[in-house]
Write a structure and sequence with these properties.
It is built from 17 helices and seven strands. It is mainly alpha-helical. The chain has a domain of 235 residues: Rossmann fold (3-Layer(aba) Sandwich), CATH 3.40.50. Helix 4 links the parallel strand 2 and strand 3. Helix 13 packs antiparallel against helix 14. The model has no long low-confidence stretch (mean pLDDT 95).
Length: 429
Amino acid sequence: MKYCVRCLYPANHPLHLTFDEDGVCSGCRVHEEKDELDWTARADMLETILARYRGKAPGKFDCVVPVSGARDSFFILDLLVRRFGMNPLLVNYNRQHNTPRGIRNLAYLRTWFDGDFMQHVVSPRRVQAITRETIHRIGSMYWHVLAGQTVFPVQVATRFKIPLIIWGAHQGIDQVGMFSHTDEVEMTRKYRCDHDLMGIEAEDLVDGVEGLTESDMVPYMYPHDREISRIGVRGIYLNNYVRWDTKAQHEDMLAKYDYETAELPRTFDTCNDVDCQHHSGLHDWVKFVKWGYGRASDHASREIRLRRMTREQGIEMVARYQDVAPPDKDAFLEWVGLSGSDFDAAIDRFRDPRIWENDHGSWTLRDSVLNHRDDPGVDAARLPQAEPWQDFPETPSKDPDAAEQEYVLMARGYSDNHRVRPPWPARAS
C-alpha cells in the first residue's frame, strides 16, 4: 500500500486522494493553503455572505446551525454569535448512542448561548432496524447518524424557510484535498450521498431484509430540489473562511465555556466525539477492519499538517491505538440485536482486499503505515514544527457519579452552572 510521505494516509482512503511526484498526498497539499491564504480577507468574505441573511429571514432566525455535545459546536457558535452577531436556530439529530458527558456538553452549549433548539429523535426501534439493514448491506453501523446529521438541518431550513445553513469543516477539504478552500464549495445532495452515505440514499433501504417502509425512511430523506430552490437553501462551510484548527479551537473554547473532554479508547484526541459511546470505539474499529487505518491516523495526520506533531510521533500514536479492542462492542450488539459472529461476518465482507488478506478464515493486515517510517522522500516532505507536541486537554467530569458507559437517549437540556450569559456584542452592521 502506498502511504503519503508527509502524513499517514494510505492510497485506499475511502474519500479518495492522489499523490504528486514527491509522494505527498492531495490532502497535505491543499492543507498548505492554511499557511498561505489571507484569512483576514477571507473572514471579510464570510461577513459579506452573512450580511445578506442577517435579519432577512421571514422568521426570527438568520441561519440554521447543526450542533452536538462534541466536535466544534462551541467554536462555531462563539464565532457566529459573538463575532458576527448572527441569531441561529440550533438543530441536533439524536444519534441514540449518547454519553452522559455529551448530553451535559449539549446542555452547557444551549445554556451559554441561550438559543432556540430543535432535536430530532427517531424511534429507537426504527433506528435499530435501519442499523441492522445498513450493517448487512454496506457494513456500516453509523449510516443512520451520518444520514440524520446531514439531512435534519436541511429539512428544518426548508420547513421554516431559513435559507442559510452553516456547517463547520468540510471533510473532503480537510482530509483529502478534494477541493481548494478558494473553491468555497457548499453542501450538495450528491456529496452527501456519494461520501457521507457511502452511495446509499434513504430510499434504497426500503423493502430490504428488515422490511423497512418508505414511511420509516422519511426522517432521512433529502427535501426535493424544488423546495430547496424555492427557498434558496444553501449550506456554507466555515473552514473555507476561517483557518480551521480543532485543537487550538477547543483549547480556546474550554477556557471560555468550561465544557468536558474525555479519554477515548482508540485515539489520543480527547475533545472530538466524546458525546458518542461508539464513534471512537466500535465505529472506529469497523473503519479499521474495512480500510486498515483508524481515527488515530486521521488525528495524527491532522496534527502533522498543523506542524505540531512529527510523522514519527504520529506513527507511534497509530502503534499505540491501532489494535486496541473496542470496549463498547457488547453494549452495541445488545442494543442492535445481533450476535458477535453475525456482526463480524457482516463487516468482514467489506474488508478492502488491497490491505487485508484472508488465509483460511484468518485475516491479516497486508501492510500498515508502521512499515513506512523511512520511506524515500519522507525527510524532503517534512514540515518544520511550529510548536512542540502537547497532549489534548482532558478535563475532570462535572458529574463523577455518572455512569458514563450507559446510553442516554434524552436528558435535561439546561445547566444551572452555566447561567451567566457572556456579553454578546451588538449585531455587526
